[in-house]
Write a structure and sequence with these properties.
GO terms for molecular function: DNA-binding transcription factor activity; transcription cis-regulatory region binding. This protein is an alpha/beta fold and about 300 residues long. Helices cover about 45% and strands about 20% of the residues. It has 2 domains: about 90 residues, Orthogonal Bundle (Arc Repressor Mutant, subunit A), CATH 1.10.10.10; about 200 residues, D-Maltodextrin-Binding Protein, domain 2 (3-Layer(aba) Sandwich). Strands 3, 4, 5, 6, 9, 10 and 11 form a 7-stranded mixed sheet that branches. Strands 1-2 form a two-stranded antiparallel sheet. Strands 7-8 form a two-stranded parallel sheet.
Length: about 300
Amino acid sequence: MELRWLEDFLALARTRHFSRAAEMQHVSQPTFSRRIKLLEEAMDATLINRQTLPLSLTPAGEQFRAMCERMTRDLRDTRDRIAEIEEAAVRRISVGSTQGLFSHFFSQWADRTGLRDRLAINLESTNWIGEDFLDALDNGDVDLVLCYWHEHLPWRQRLDPQRYTWLSLEQERITPFTIVQEDGTPRFTLPGTADQPVPAISYHSRGFLSSAILEQISRSTEQAHLFPLNENTHSASIKALVKQGFGMGWLPYRMGAKSQQFGQLARAGGEQWDVFVQIRLIRLRQPRSEDTITLWNELENQHDE
């Protein structure tokens, strides 16, 4: 049974005339009559009394008409609701976010600012690295970028204030973590020695955190002896390897402090090894949507309060 057959039947029930109903449905009368016949065959019942002038509905037809009216009403309401949902989705502002910030910061921040229903994460962005986020802004793939920022990014000059503007939302502490041993002591501890370097799970060199960590290590009064095991793009990947005991790694403090799977995490060194970066929200100075500017102004007002 096809939906248009139900619409045909309602048109015939209203007009009680095959020719006028066919005209309403924008089909020829033979085609219309054939569709009504197919409908009756599908229902295994006679719905139209063709012996009366004007046409009338049989008792089965009256029952069927009530069902058709409910279905078409529900369909119309559903279509309207879907249209509203689609319109709202179009109005939602697209956000590109690093995987780490998406997993442990975005939801709480969006709820706190009351913006969750107006923002949509571009899930592809959780696989982007470094400058990919600014490329996405330039290309119109996202309206906003949620990322880390610090003065040691090798491509920091790209954030031209004539082209971009930003808000610093919070400061993030990046802390070296390691799994603990059975006696409760850290399995790996900075700074290590030349004979026994500390195995380290590193960040991708094109990412946001690698250069900040290297700069902190270079400024330490103690020389760090590290044995890089591998390079990862995401904090979650580093955390998983750290928790399985392969080595130590720098993680956002809130991300490392709350995990219990595989074993408890502990600091792999004192606070002198902590790295501090900004969590920034970035947009084009001339955004493509007025909704972006409206939302941005609301955020600025919240920060000023």
